[in-house]
Amino acid sequence: MFTKSLALELADKGIRVNAVLPGPFWTPAIATSDEETVRNFGTFTMLGRAGQPEEIAPAYVFLAADAPFMTGSLLVFDSKLCKGNQGLARRRVTRRM
Question: What's the pTM?
């Protein structure tokens, strides 16, 4: 909500406000975590792994260079669903049918 509110506030000044919402991506801070955290980091995503910085970098380049009409938007890079939730979602759909 903050991104959209700020975009609305600054639009008349020609300032665009967008946000990138990363999920689990490898950073130097993660590398210094305990062994178990590093081993399990990102395994809960649909891809079964954490993202690499070069996989999210194009989002920032896009916003900086190729999105002059885009404001108030959220670019989500988190694999959306977790592995553990997929089965649950399928069961809910099956029950409705």
Answer: 0.70
